[in-house]
Specification:
Order of helices and strands: HEEHEEEHEEEEEEEEEEHEEHEHEEHEEE
Number of helices: 7
Helix content: 10-25%
Radius of gyration: 31 Å
Shape: elongated
Distance between the termini: 61 Å
Largest sheet: 6 strands, antiparallel, barrel
Mean pLDDT: 80
Structural class: alpha+beta
CATH topology of one domain: Thrombin, subunit H
Number of strands: 23
Strand content: 25-35%
Amino acid sequence: MYPSFDPYSERSYAPPPATKRTPWLLIILVAIIAGAIGAVGGVGVVLARLPEGAAQDIPVSPAALPLELTTENRTISLNINSAVTDTVAEIAPAVVTVLNTLSGPGSYPGSSAGNIASGSGIFISPEGYLITNQHVVEGAQGLEVIFANGEQRSAELVGADPYADLAVLHVDGDIPAYAQLGNSDMVKPGETVIAIGSPLGAFQNTVTVGVISATDRAINVTDTYELQGMIQTDAAINQGNSGGPLINLDGEIIGINTLIIRGYSGSATAEGLGFAIPSNTVRAISSQLISSGRIIRPYLGIRWGWITPDIARRYNLPVEHGVFLTDVIAGGPADQAGLETNDIIIAINETPLDENNPFTNLLFEYEPGDEIMLTIFQDGKTFAMNLTLGELPH
């Protein structure tokens, strides 16, 4: 709290003689209460602390009003606005536009020849490493980044992981700024967040503000794989924001914006459904990409199709969920374990494969060299077999 102001503390004061007059203290208190309720930011008077037995109204200029004398909502609003502007000033220089040069004639001003796909990214280290989405850099013949100040530089792809939809790029030379990765496990719904990126590739370093709408969302990207643990936000995200950061008010990256949902088939159009890859996933993936250029994934050595209840009914299959083996790669882990074409995998380590446990997600819980138990349907019989996972070829 601000210290109380006592205009009489440095001089002697004798109380005035008692007289009948309007009870100013009551009027002033009513004015203060009314002003707090109905006139946010308005001009009023405050009662300074007086010696015991004294009451006198003392005018105070609006500039001298301490923040605590405004309404609580106004105080919170001013604090959040200040935190947002301070955070943006600190982090915005670390955000870049990512240009992916594809085949064909160029159209982006100042770019080299080739069609341009664009997204966003953010530096995460002073050595020039930056994070973006894998789908932003997919199929690139050349990569460039544009700094917030308009400077344009070439970038090198260090590594990418399509399953996490993350990629690491590197830029030589000094960089204007970088941001720290925060702890996404601490994120809570209702928390204020900031998205920074280049929507449509034309509006560089656009800032939008929203809240964490939910955490731990799962978004299906294929029938057999889903992005898990996603952070949902209502901060405006558009095409071109992909790969840009979702920032908390401490100036930390708590997510990498990757997709939006406008609605499902047959549903009404939705707005404010944006999703970000949590920073703890970003940290784990990026550290592997920087150290080795790739993510080490487990490998079975099969070609397969995903069984759903509809497919099971259509083809009269014996199970409603599972992985139907269309081919077993010679010499691979599945072949060595005795799996055959037309076998069906229905569980991994007794966890059934279904809509809540997509095959790829469940498999990726393990590492090359791990021994797992598969539950197999083969020739009308169900049995278990052990298998040692290999490493997904690079």
